[in-house]
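Hi Y.,

Following your request, here is the sequence exactly as I used it, all 876 residues.
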Amino acid sequence: MTPAQPAQPRSTIGRRISALVAVAVLTSVILVTGAFIWIQTGDNIQERRKAIEATAYVFASAIADHVALGNRQEAFKVLRSIGRVPDITYAAVIGPDNREIASLGNSVFLQENLVDSTPGLAELLTRGSFPVAVDIIKGGALVGRLIVIADISGLRAQLTTALLTALITAAAASLLGMAIASTLQRRITGPILALTRAMAVVRDRRDYSAKVEHRADDETGVLVETFNGMIAEINSRDAALESHRQSLEATVQTRTRELSVARDAAEAANHAKSGFLATMSHEIRTPMNGVMVMAELLAGAGLDQRHQRYAEVIVKSGQSLLTIINDILDLSKIEAGKLELEKVEIDPVSIGDDVVSLFWERASSKGLDLACCVAPGLPRRIAGDPVRLNQIVSNLVNNALKFTERGEVLILLQYETGTLHLSVRDSGIGIAPEKLAGLFEAFTQADQSTTRKYGGTGLGLTISKRLAEAMGGTISVTSEAGKGSSFTVSIPVEVVEPARPGTVEKPMRIGIALAGPATQASLRAYFAASGHSVARAEPDLPFDVIFAAAADLASYARTTPRPKLVCVAGLGDSSGESAIASGLADDLILLPLRHSDIEEMEARMARGEFRGRSLLDRRSAPKLPARSFFGRRILVADDNAVNREVIIEVLRQLDAQVETAGDGCEALALWRRSRPDLVFMDCSMPGMDGFAATRAIRAEEPAGSHTPIVALTAHVAGGANDAWREAGMDAYLTKPFTMRTIIDCLDGRLTGAAVAPARPHTAVPVIDTSMIDELRSIGGSDALLQRVLVLFLENVPDAMAIIEHHDGADLKALADAVHALKSMCANIGARRALMACDELELLARTGQDFDAGAKIGNIAREIEATLAEVKKIRAA
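Below is the corresponding structure, written out as tokens. Let me know if you'd prefer a different format.
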């Protein structure tokens, strides 16, 4: 088949170049020649004008006398002389009255045109004559005018000849330009035509071996070089494709074998994972069962209200922990869609309350307000899976607390047309809009920097989403960066018992004066749904009942008539019981708020039966101290919650008023505000430690005033025993302290007697049994002892793991970690472990050379022995 020839263009580049050159040359020559002729002709006419004017002036002078005398004959003779001048065709003499005196020639012109106008160049060339008029002067007076007309028709002939010459020259120049352009265009279009022919060969024959010869270095040369390069790349690609095609079958076989091996390895790993999960399920659930059974027994032991709440938190926390463990172990079931859901009757309010109880301590430690708000119309009981609902809300609250530094976290429970809405709102860092789409993917967080700063695996939201979908529901999120987030889970539920009507027989005016917006919202929503009138509490406004923090009660107690005051205080906060003891508060409700507690409070409000000082009644203890420090105000500063709880319990039984602080800054602020009678100051606290806080207090004390400050330290030897004195403290108590040592300290500091520092025992048991007996005595039962031992068992393994994994490079960090473990050992009287920790801490803080591995190993052995003894004590 004959290949198609490339189509011939109707107008080639060469023709266009030739035409362009011809037109440019012709136009240029014509314009230049025409301009030259025009200028030359004008110059000739001007010279002719000057010559005729000179002639006219000569004859005007000669004829002046005759004109002045009115002698026509003589004037005519002079005119006849003018007529002999070449090219003069007409001459005339005009008198002052514009009347003709004499004339010569046959030209006919209007007299006013001859005298008053000067024709232009075009007009002169058109008519072929040139008029000139000059004045005839005699004795300084104008006696007439002389008009002369000259023939200039010869100039037109010269102009015509010049134009013809210009046209001939332009034509010759155009032909010469076209010849030159034709030569140049072949050098330009030749490579282009060759490139066109090569492209036609590639198109028609699929022959990619064609190349164009490179002849120039200009733009056409670059074009040719680019074309040749493109052909070379195509050839290279075709060669690679052919090579790949030839080896593709072998590659597929190799990949198939590799995938088969990978599949077998994955199946083996999956079997191993299943075996591991089964083993871990048994190993983890077995001790968890013991923890939960013992916690439930403790919760049912008839404890006082505050201790009962502690036990309930342990039970709920254990249940939530077991739920999380089950979810981790059963994650494969979730991924495989084999998750089994139960359907039992549950109170949806208990879901929110349990999660609040579980996370309240964590929220409180960050200064966050955590509460659950129930919207009107929420059913009393629904059918659902309480474990999975609890896990969803727990994951969302845990996520909110992680990313919220200040403000509040609010759980909102709502019901609407067969759907339960569980929302968790926070005032945290928020999420950028572009990050929302992938938020629920496994192991994903909004930003990689988020993982580094806040930790976590990013699995909680994924599990929550899958659990919600497994229950036929959905999860959604709304957020704005820097303004918090709101996660909402909507699940269809079956109502077993609808909501009760929100009416009371006697509505009350209830005022709320609390700083936490979440707690405010919870109380406001509950009482408003019951039909009460709820508003922000203001002094001097009439209210029946006011809920307020201990620090704000005094301002409302002065209102007339005095409303009933309910103190809102947190677990472990002594301010609530102090307000009850002083008569400032009529009742007490503890944080975290539970709706069952609010219901009981509402029932007492309706009956007018506020508990008052009956709240302070405790079960009798076998050995109550005979000493009383009633009216004395004691400040306890310690960052360890267990340490605070132990010493607070002792001081309460001694009738002292107690305030607590978690660090040196807070202790300094409380000292400035209340000026206590004595301060128990822990030496090692985050931020501002006890030494710095003591120095600040001493610097601010007015002259003649002195607040006794007693150091709480876990050191038994070394330089720390002198540091408390250098900081300005009055004495120190070595942990573990007993009720007797505290009484002796108060007697010595508050009555003037000296305090003898405690000395270590010569015989060193694993655990000092006197400390165990003292803990039983302090609590009035085993409640406090069991709580301290459980906290020890829970926290010591993690603290020991931090020490064992320390590389020894940062001695300060090692000393701090050992100090934290030592403080835990001191709480239960673990003497030998305490001394081992103290030895390593002293070496680390003083920078002496030591074998860190040997010292850590010694601590590990003592801790192992201590844990065994603790388990024996708990089982006894």
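The chain has a mean pLDDT of 77.

Thanks again,
Q.
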